[in-house]
Amino acid sequence: MLELYILLFGIFQLIAGLLEFFMPAGLFRLWKTWALSRFFPLHGFILIAAGFPLIVYKGSLHGIIFWIGVFMVLTGPFLMIYPEKIRKVFLTAENDLTPRDLRMLVYVDSFVRIAAGILSIVAWYKTIC
Length: 129
Known about the structure:
Elements: H1 2-22, H2 24-36, H3 42-56, H4 62-81, H5 83-96, H6 99-128
């Protein structure tokens, strides 16, 4: 069952990364809208809940998957406690950075998501085979 979660996590990250790569401006606006939402602290709960299964995964590439999970679980409380700091980062970035710089930030995030997605899918494949 955990292997299926790793596969679905990988597919989700890969799709999200590809969307960010091909539509950086639109995804930045989406992330900014989400960060300004009053429900944004729930994102911290989602990160914690999504990261815990990665921490307990013991299949192929479990070391890398473990650290992805640790990063997610440790980021979650920060988003719940300090959502206004994240909001301020988005607003400051939008005001201070050029559109090219904003695209580059989204590209960096997309490459991290794509890498996490590919690693998760490879881990799933190597575990079941």
